[in-house]
Amino acid sequence: MATRCVKLARASRMRLTRLDACGTPVPGPTGTLVTDGFINVDGAPNYLDPEEITQLNANGDLCIDDQGRPALRWIDLTIVMCNIDPDAFSIITGNPLVVDDATPTTNTVGFRLNGELTGTASFAMELWSGVNGVPCDASGDKPYGYWLFPYVVQARMGEWSIANAALTLTMTARTSTGSGWGTGPNSYLVRGDAATGTPEKILTAIDDTDHLHFETVTVPPPAAACGATALAA
Q1: Positions in the chain short of pLDDT 50
Q2: CA separation (Å) from 83 to 11, 44, 88, 167?
Q3: How far is Cα of residue 218 from the mean position of the Cα atoms in its chain?
Q4: Which of 17, 26, 48, 148 could form a disulfide bond with 71, CB atoms 3.0-4.6 angstroms apart?
Q5: pLDDT in tens, 169-182
Q6: CA-based torsion, 127, 128, 132, 133: positive or negative
Q7: How would you classify residue 94: left for phi > 0, otherwise alpha for psi between -120 and 50, otherwise beta?
Q8: Backbone angles phi, psi at 217, to 5 degrees
Q9: Which residues are 156's β-sheet partners?
Q10: Smallest Cα–Cα separation from 43: which of 112, 120, 127?
């Protein structure tokens, strides 16, 4: 068995998927969104420090010195967007959209920040990063780094500045256990079969204790677009 090592640089795409309260993708007309309008996504694992047990003997020397293992609680995420896509903001934070009065179909033109709805959304986030210094394979396919955060919750909006400068939106969230992602929606063909290169879903289902999945893939990321699109059942 060979191990594939890669050098990663830059990132080209983000895909957001609406989840229900059980961490399962929600099919519907606005169930998924693909964007290249982000600046960075920072991740910081949050651990519960291991419990320590120590005991001195009658002479004051250390008799028992034991430590448990650290427990991963979640991954804190910071998402910085440079393209103000109302649908992306709503999928991430759960806040309501603002629509116009166009007929027969309204247009989404903004969003609101609502005290009752902020932090109520659950979503999955996928990222595609570049692989540096690795040639295309025999089929001419380019490698990518594929990152999946299968169950993200409790997102909130951070500070912003409206000034003579570029405006960015920062949101923070955290991962959760109990994901119902499985191998993802049927249309999410993110990796290539090792023998044929045929696009497929991830090979092994996400475990309910998984916070992050990473692998190198040769299937290109989906195309970016403004606004959410349909997610088939």
Answers
A1: none
A2: 15, 24, 9, 9
A3: 19
A4: 48
A5: 999 999 999 999 99
A6: positive
A7: left
A8: -135, 165
A9: 172
A10: 127
